[in-house]
Automatic annotation (TrEMBL):
This is Esterase. It comes from Indibacter alkaliphilus (strain CCUG 57479 / KCTC 22604 / LW1). InterPro entries: AB_hydrolase_fold (IPR029058), Mycobacterial_A85_antigen (IPR050583).
Length: 574
C-alpha cells in the first residue's frame, strides 16, 4: 500500500450562502514531499478542458483562475491551512468565485535560499535552465487536473503526484555550438555558482579557414532552448498546418520552417557575409533574462555579459574581439537590451538595432508617466475615476487593463517580484533593494500608488532617453551613427509612445547629431522591426539578416584598413 505525506489546505468561503463551507485538501506523494521546504502554493481553476490550468493563466479575459500563498519551512506530514484571504486573479477573493464546473489543479513553485554578497538572504525560485518558466521549472510539483463541481459546499481533494522533468539540453551541430559559462561576477553576487549560456551560429567553412576572424552579432531577447530560425533541411512534407491566433493565419508553423531553411541556404552561400551570430541565455531567479545590465537586485549581468561572456565567445570561436566588430539587435525585451548595452557600454559595441523596445523613456512607461502620475492603475478626475488601459490591438481595441496585468503577477508571485513575469522583472531590474532584500516596488502592487523615490532611482539609472540626454556631452560622440530604433505605431503595449519621446530628443542632438534612424510601422502591432513592405509575421523571423546593409555601412566607416569588406573577415597576421 502506498504511503502519502499530506499537505492539507483548508479553504473556507461563502458562495451562495454564508453558512455553506467548502474544504480543499491537497495530498503530496512521499517522494515529492521530501524535497519540499519553501515556496508558493497555487490553486488553479480553469473553465475549459484540454489545457492544463497552469498553462491557462494570462492577461486576457479567458484566463484561468489562480490563488496563491507563500509557505516556509514545510515539514513532511504537517498540514497547511490555506489563507481564506489569499489574493486571487482574475477574481480577487475565493468567496466570489461563481458556482460551476471547473478543472482544478494544485501547483507548488519551489524556492531556494540565496545568501547574497550584499548581506541579504532571500528565498526565491531558481532557473533550472528552462528559462525561469514557473509552470515548467524542473522540480516543481503539481497535481493532475481534476474536474470538480464548485458550488460553495462539500469537500474537494487534489493529489500532487507529478513533477516537471529536467531540461534536455541541445546538442552541437556543424553550424550551431552551445556553451555554458560560469560567471565569476554573478557567482560572487548570488553566493553560488551562476552560469551564462549561449547558442552560437558559426559561418561556413569555419573549421577550414582557421585564419579568419569574424564580427559578432549579438541577438538579445528571451531565453531560448536552442538557436532559433535556422534549419538545414526543407520543411517537413507531412507537417500538419497549425493556426496562429497571434497572426490570424493558418500554416504559420510551415512558414517558420521554410524561413529557417531559407536562412540556412543564405548562410552557406558563397556571397553571404561571414559573421558569428549569438543568442545569449541569461535567465535568473526573477525572469527568463536579465535585461543585460547591472542591477542592485539581479546582479552585474551587464558586466558579466560584456566583459566575461562575450570575450570568452570571441576567444573560443575566433571573433575579432574589438568593439568596432560587435553589433547588438533584438525585439521587445531584446530591443531594450540592445539599446541599453549600447548606451551603457558605448565603446564596446558599434551599433544597436532596437525593435519594439520595452519602455526606453519612463514618461511613457507603457501608459504611465512614473514621474508625474500619482497612480499607475487609475486616472482620477474631480468627479470620476477610470482604469488605465494596458493592452490593445492594431485598431485600438483594449483587451486588458494595466491593473489586471499586475494583479495576475501579484497572485502568481506575491508582493516580492517573484511571478517571473513582465512587470515584476522591470521592477527587479530597475528598483533599489528594499529593506527585506527584495526589489523596492515602483508602485503598490495592489493600490497602484507610485513611489516617487523609486521613480527617481529608475530615472537616474535606467531611463535610457534621460541617460542619453543627461550624458550626451560625454557619450554622444561614442554613439554617433549607432542608434537604430523601430516600432509599430499601434504597438500592443503602447511602447511606441516612449519611442516618440526618445526620437524627439535624438533629432535635436548636436555636437554630434546622433546620425541613426527611428522608423514606425503604420498600424503595426508588437513587435514591428523595420520592414515596411513585409508583414510582421515574416520579418520577425529574419532578425539575423534584416540589418546587414546598415551593419555593412557602419563597418566601411569604422573598421581598420586590414578588414576585408568583401566578406567582412579580418584575416589576422601571425
Amino acid at each position: 500500500m502506498r504511503k502519502f505525506a499530506f499537505i492539507l489546505i483548508m479553504i473556507t468561503f461563502y458562495s451562495c450562502s454564508p453558512n455553506k463551507n467548502t474544504k480543499v485538501s491537497i495530498t503530496v506523494e512521499d517522494e515529492l514531499g521530501k524535497k519540499l521546504s519553501d515556496g508558493r502554493l497555487l490553486l488553479l481553476l480553469h473553465h475549459q478542458e484540454g489545457t492544463e490550468p497552469r498553462f491557462a493563466v494570462s492577461d486576457d479575459v479567458g484566463s484561468a483562475q489562480v490563488v496563491g500563498m507563500d509557505f516556509e519551512n514545510y515539514q513532511e506530514g504537517n498540514g497547511f491551512e490555506f489563507d481564506v484571504e489569499a489574493f486571487g486573479y482574475p477574481i480577487e477573493n475565493l468567496k466570489d468565485i461563481p458556482p460551476g464546473e471547473y478543472w482544478a489543479q494544485a501547483y507548488i513553485v519551489k524556492y531556494e535560499t540565496y545568501k547574497r554578497s550584499d548581506g541579504h538572504t532571500v528565498k526565491m525560485p531558481m532557473d533550472q535552465w528552462e528559462g525561469r518558466q514557473w509552470n515548467r521549472t524542473p522540480g516543481n510539483i503539481f497535481s493532475t487536473p481534476k474536474k470538480i463541481q464548485w458550488n460553495g459546499s462539500g469537500a474537494i481533494s487534489l493529489h500532487i503526484d507529478q513533477i516537471n522533468p529536467p531540461v534536455e539540453e541541445p546538442e552541437d551541430t556543424e553550424f550551431i555550438k552551445h556553451i555554458k559559462f560560469k560567471s565569476e561576477l554573478l557567482s560572487e553576487f548570488w553566493g553560488r555558482d551562476i552560469y551564462l549560456g549561449a547558442h552560437i551560429l558559426l559561418p561556413r567553412d569555419f573549421d577550414k579557414r582557421t585564419e579568419e576572424h569574424y564580427p559578432l552579432m549579438i541577438f538579445h531577447g528571451h531565453f531560448t532552448p536552442d538557436f532559433g530560425g535556422f534549419r538545414t533541411t526543407p520543411p517537413d512534407e507531412n507537417l500538419e498546418e497549425e493556426y496562429s491566433p497571434r497572426f490570424d493565419i493558418y500554416g504559420y508553423n510551415k512558414i517558420q520552417q521554410q524561413e529557417a531553411y531559407d536562412f540556412y541556404q543564405k548562410w552557406v552561400s558563397p556571397d553571404f557575409p561571414k559573421f558569428i551570430a549569438v543568442e545569449i541565455q541569461h535567465a535568473n531567479p526573477f525572469y527568463d533574462d536579465s535585461y543585460a545590465v547591472n542591477s542592485e537586485n539581479i546582479g552585474p549581468y551587464g558586466d558579466a555579459i560584456t566583459y566575461e561572456l562575450i570575450p570568452h565567445i570571441e576567444k573560443e570561436f575566433r571573433g575579432i574581439g574589438e568593439g568596432w566588430a560587435r553589433f547588438t539587435y533584438g525585439g521587445s525585451t531584446g530591443g531594450w537590451e540592445a539599446l541599453a548595452v549600447q548606451v551603457k557600454y558605448p565603446e564596446e559595441y558599434n551599433g544597436c538595432f532596437a525593435a519594439c523596445p520595452d519602455p526606453i523613456d519612463f514618461r511613457a512607461y507603457t501608459t504611465v508617466n512614473i514621474y508625474e502620475d500619482e497612480n499607475a492603475y487609475f486616472l482620477k478626475g474631480p468627479f470620476r475615476t477610470t482604469e488605465r488601459v494596458g493592452k490593445r490591438n492594431y485598431l485600438g481595441h483594449v483587451s486588458a487593463m494595466l491593473k489586471d496585468m499586475n494583479y495576475k503577477e501579484l497572485a502568481l508571485g506575491g508582493n516580492k517580484s517573484l511571478s517571473g513575469d513582465q512587470w515584476d522583472i522591470w521592477q527587479a531590474v530597475y528598483s533599489p533593494i528594499g529593506a527585506d532584500g527584495y526589489p523596492k516596488p515602483i508602485w503598490d502592487k495592489y493600490s497602484g500608488e507610485i513611489d516617487k523615490d523609486v521613480a527617481d532611482h529608475w530615472k537616474e539609472n535606467y531611463d535610457l532617453r534621460y541617460i542619453m540626454e543627461r550624458d550626451w556631452s560625454d557619450i554622444g560622440s561614442k554613439l554617433e551613427g549607432k542608434i537604430h530604433i523601430y516600432c509599430g505605431d499601434m504597438d500592443n503595449y503602447y511602447l511606441n509612445n516612449a519611442v516618440y519621446l526618445t526620437e524627439e530628443f535624438l533629432e535635436n542632438t548636436d555636437s554630434p547629431y546622433y546620425g541613426g534612424e527611428v522608423l514606425y510601422g503604420d498600424r503595426a502591432e508588437h513587435c514591428w522591426n523595420g520592414d515596411p513592405d513585409l508583414p510582421n509575421y515574416i520579418t520577425r523571423l529574419r532578425y539575423h539578416t534584416m540589418y546587414l546593409d546598415r551593419i555593412a555601412e557602419r563597418l566601411k566607416k569604422t573598421a581598420p584598413a586590414d578588414f576585408n569588406h568583401s566578406n567582412w573577415v579580418l584575416i589576422k597576421k601571425n
